[in-house]
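Problem statement: downstream parser choked on a complex file, so we are re-checking the raw output for the flavin-adenine dinucleotide run. The parser issue turned out to be on our end (a line-ending mismatch), but while we're here, posting the original submission so the record is complete.
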Amino acid sequence: MSDSGDTEILISGGGFAGLALGIALASAGYEARVIEAGDTARFRESAFDGRVSAIAPDIRRMLETLGVWQGIAEFQTVGDIVVSGGTVEGGASPFFLHFGENDRGRAAFDMVENRFLRTALLDKAHATPGLTVTPSARVTAAVSARTGVTARLSTDETCRARLLVAAEGRDSPLREAYGIKTSGWSYRQWGIVCTVEHERPHEGVAQEYFLPSGSFAILPMTGNRASLVWAEREDLAPAFLALNDADFDAEIARRFTDFLGRTRVVGDRFGYPLSVQLARTYIAERFALVGDAAHVVHPLAGQGLNLGLRDVAALAEAVADAGRLGLDIGSAAPLDAYQRRRRIDATLMAATTDALNRLFSNDNAPLRAIRETGLGLVNAVPPLRRLLARAAAGDSTDAPRLLQGVAL
Ligand SMILES: Cc1cc2nc3c(=O)[nH]c(=O)nc-3n(C[C@H](O)[C@H](O)[C@H](O)COP(=O)(O)OP(=O)(O)OC[C@H]3O[C@@H](n4cnc5c(N)ncnc54)[C@H](O)[C@@H]3O)c2cc1C
């Protein structure tokens, strides 16, 4: 067993949240080390993760401030989101909700392919002094004590730190090792994700239909392309994924209606089981959870990654502010401040997306009437629409500095 010496913050998991946290902390002058189980060379491949993420304006400001956004190869700005109810055969309902650009005088969000965001994060991580990324390795054990954390790595090293952060995604082994329980359930749905090419331009408008078996989102990408996130019953999803290209295209076309002309699926199809999960606490002695390790929400509002990066902004600020005051950065005070700032937000988002999924993902006639009227009412009352749009955009007056575009 070799001794790799000290780092100030050890981060287990080099996904979106782990890499962003490492960059934020190292940019603020801390020494950070990210341990990633996967082979990071594969992160750049589209077959590794075919998803496209909706990046909220506050998260874009943070990524710009950290110098990550500048490395994103391409993105598509979305100016309007049209949400409607409907059925597969009957098409979209006449009641719908617009979250337009004009409501807040700027774009609703940007769509970025996950591979481009991972590549920009990795490149920035490698270029940031004070940050080390170790691929194909794991934290196999960790012990927190009053003076620091001692971790054992699969590389046969021992690493000491003042703070250990788990950014390991929803099945976080460190969360379990620290005895942190979670609450949640499976939606018994899969998210089917694929890219389609279409005939007519999308004009930067995203569409989301709430069909009886789940939400069906059409998210504009660069060119005449869109990413589909299709929530489907878990007993039906594998059969849809196994269809031949022509039959899969036909299923997509039935749900798409013809507003973009003919569509054709390009590239791989992916299936992700959908669940909601909330950690009972985000912190323990010298230990914090960020991203999906802390909370998993239904993807119908495209908010999981955004929530995780808001955790990053809050934790990095709590650490930097504690350090500036001469406090121990792994002590209870900054960790409590982090948890206070983030837990309610993530819990509300989990509850909201859960309620929307329950209300919309069924074919109950009275519920169908309520939801259609509900969308119409929200659309008819501009202040209510703006309130909802602001919540999704992460607009808040006491947001962490990175989310306001201010460096730590
Ligand atoms: C279908 C679908 C569509 C989505 N669309 C959107 C969207 O439009 N917008 C949005 O904001 N969010 C979206 N999300 C949610 C988003 O993808 C997740 O919230 C996000 O990936 C979580 O990032 P993370 O870094 O916390 O975790 P992950 O991306 O899961 O990364 C965790 C990392 O930790 C590593 N790891 C795991 N265990 C260990 C270990 N023991 N040691 C070291 N490393 C380890 C893994 O290899 C991985 O790289 C979507 C989710 C789904 C399923």
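For whoever reads this later: The pocket of flavin-adenine dinucleotide is lined by residues 12-18, 35-38, 51, 53-54, 138-139, 167-169, 173, 191, 193, 229, 272, 291-292, 299, 302-306, 308 (CB under 6 Å).
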